[in-house]
Design a protein that fits this description.
This protein has 15 helices and eight strands. Among the domains are: 76 residues, no CATH class; 81 residues, no CATH class. The longest helix is centred in the first third of the chain and has 22 residues. Strands 3, 4, 5, 6, 7 and 8 form a six-stranded mixed beta sheet that branches. Strands 1-2 form a two-stranded antiparallel ribbon. The protein is an alpha/beta fold. Helix 7 links the parallel strand 6 and strand 7. Required for the transposition of the insertion element. GO terms for molecular function: DNA binding; transposase activity. This is Mutator family transposase. Belongs to the transposase mutator family. InterPro entries: Transposase_mutator.
Amino acid sequence: MTKTEGRTASAAVKDILLSNPDGLREVIRTVMQEVLEAEMDEALGAAKGERTPERLGYRSGHYGRTLITRVGKLELRVPQDRSGHFSTELFERYQRSERALVATLAEMYVQGVSTRKVKAITEELCGHAFSASSISAINKRLDESLKAFAERSLEEPFAYLILDARYEKVREAGVVMSQAVLIAVGIDWDGRRQILSVEMAGRESRSAWKDFLVRLKGRGLKGVELVVSDDHAGLVAAIGEVIPEAAWQRCYVHFLRNALDHLPRKHGDDCLQELRWLYDRRDLDEAKADLAAWLGKWSVRYPRLTSWVEETIEQTLTFFRLPRQHHKHLKSTNMLERLNEEIRRRTYVVRIFPNTESCLRLVRALAVETHENWMEANRYINMDDLREHKKLALRQAA
């Protein structure tokens, strides 16, 4: 797209937003309509009215389709081909997590634990209140596809594994409690991120994490060289027991947050900022030189903090074993933050899930959506850097 075209498109969007109270809905509708037309062009091998020997078929009008979204109902025109072979994945992919959210809200309504607000949301999104039978049908279709994703075989090796957990409120036997959502992301040798598993557990215990990792290995997880996580004792113990061959990187972001526990309430920002800078160094020798200087500068003023850092910081420096190009991606669990933010945004609507199954359904639907986007995107990191790094290490060892 040229700069002129970019300005024209931006101006058109701005005009829609300013002139139409439902401008955002119209922008999304327009984009999705363009996606449908582009899909048809690709399927036929030619644009509308285009003459080309590569053409595989011809258009045959459109049919109407309503798509339910968070910005309201979108009325779309789905193109058809004469042979009737064309189909689009747009609706299935876009609505998977939408269905999970609506089904959860509706489930709350049917079970009698909702409010008038929940009923209003479900009616606004879907045009009617749900019956128990309709919810059951929605959930059955959704659960089948999510189960296939959750139990798929992991054929290729994953060099990097990132583990994290978050908590959601779930009502069980009339009691509201927090339950852990355990998440695993892997990076394969093509440099792509994949969501490997999303499961629920009563809490982040050693046994819960061990079972989680054992199930991953049972599905084919192999070749892990580095695991990144926070320093939860149960998780660290499970990693050492189930994947002993992998090195462990303690997330430096969590480490810096933990450092606040060893500082007085009133403290300057310079101390932690200088500690943070260690993680931007080129190699381990440079980082350790800066660490020695940092300890010498702050040990008198903050002896409790510096003693704790001296004892534990080695766990956060494992990433220096990797090629420098990989440092920023593997020194923390931050790559999961966007997924966690999206989970938080959707689960906030529900607040308290009526049961564990409905919570897992929504979170897994979001995970599938994110996983598919990651697989279609450009590779996350260049694994050729790791291959060359390992070859160099072998030559130096010899």
